[in-house]
Design brief:
Layout (H helix, E strand, L loop, with lengths): L31 H8 L2 E9 L5 E5 L3 E7 L13 E2 L2 E2 L5 E7 L2 E4 L8 E10 L20 E12 L16 E2 L6 E3 L3 E5 L6 E5 L8 E5 L6 E5 L4 E4 L18 E8 L3 E6 L6 E2 L2 E2 L5 E7 L2 E6 L2 E15 L10
């Protein structure tokens, strides 16, 4: 891969109950390889593993690169969910088999039991297009329409500034801001939003600097608090801002995002909880698509049907070849 994995931090929130009776061993009727080939038709190599503030795996197949987040939680488990291949945690260089089902990837059961469940955060083309399709021509097209290709699809928590694309490189530690959420690298002193004296918390989610969510160093339930000083940390390439992912209460709202490359720019767009569409046709990775923009919105058009267009929110715009995304003005 020509592009490194962007650093990303998130809190796995799904909770699954372990079955009382383990599933039969794969060796009882066929080898693990045969079982994988029959049901888990996708095969890839693990390029990188991020195990801080969650377990994330960048997996490359012949044509695509996936960023997967382990969400399977055992009935009794300390720490963040960690997925396994066989009896060992997934590691760099492992060959893994998996199946796809909407926004999820499933791997064979580890030592019996349930499948390993992973959320698909991003799916990207392994090789970016060298030539873009010609801009469609027609009386229905408005000035400024560009031709493009969908180079990435994914999901993020509503309120983020984008998913953890591998084409957005990680940066050095910096100060948190609305435009640049960071994962703090040290405990933070902050005043609880519910009131009371300052507490020192170990952050459990990225922050934009306005609030931070974390566990008090003295112990207890997670709190959301306002930092008493600027917060620095590692940029997380669009991981959820502090306060948007809580360790209790309602689950976060996941929404679909797109990454579209034109001749000069890469657009990152937010859709909704449902897959991105134009009309009734779902937008797929690798699709040729036309784009025009108005302020903070992008209008997408399939070349095969110039009479329909769909409006989506622009999360960021990146000049092709640039190192980081910039928010739309």
């Amino acid at each position: 891969m020509p592009h490194p994995l962007a650093r990303i931090s998130a809190r796995g929130l799904a909770a699954l109950i372990v079955l009382c009776c383990a599933l039969p061993s794969l060796a009882d009727d066929k080898s693990a390889t045969e079982y994988s080939a029959a049901k888990y038709k996708e095969t890839g190599t693990v390029l990188s593993v991020t195990s801080k503030h969650g377990h994330f795996y960048q997996v490359a197949t012949d044509s695509r690169v996936y960023l997967l987040m382990c969400v399977k939680v055992k009935s009794i488990q300390l720490g963040m969910p960690e997925c396994k291949v066989g009896d060992k945690p997934i590691a760099v260089g492992d060959s893994v088999h998996f199946r796809l089902d909407k926004d999820w990837a499933y791997m064979p059961p580890a030592s019996g039991g349930d499948e390993e469940k992973l959320r698909i955060l991003t799916t990207e083309l392994k090789d970016l297009p060298k030539d873009l399709p010609a801009t469609p021509a027609g009386k229905n097209l408005k000035p400024g329409t560009e031709s493009g290709v969908v180079i990435g699809t994914g999901v993020h928590v509503h309120g983020q500034h984008g998913a953890g694309w591998s084409t957005t490189p990680a940066s050095a530690p910096t100060t948190a801001s609305v435009a640049g959420p960071v994962m703090p690298t040290a405990p933070v002193t902050a005043v609880p939003v519910t009131g009371g004296p300052p507490v020192v918390v170990v952050p459990t989610a990225p922050t934009t600097g306005g609030v931070v969510t974390g566990i008090p160093v003295t112990g207890g339930a997670p709190v959301t608090a306002i930092p008493t000083a600027p917060v620095t940390g590692i940029p997380v390439a669009g991981a959820p801002a502090g306060g948007t992912v809580m360790l209790g209460g309602s689950a976060p709202q996941w929404v679909h995002v797109l990454r579209i490359q034109t001749a000069a720019k890469i657009y990152q767009l937010e859709c909704s909880t449902k897959p991105c569409v134009v009309g009734v046709r779902e937008i797929q990775l690798g699709d040729a698509i036309a784009v025009r923009t108005e302020k903070n919105s992008a209008y997408l058009i399939f070349p095969q049907n110039l009479s329909e267009e769909q409006k989506y929110k622009i999360l960021s715009v990146t000049p092709v070849g640039a190192e980081s995304d910039s928010k739309p003005k």
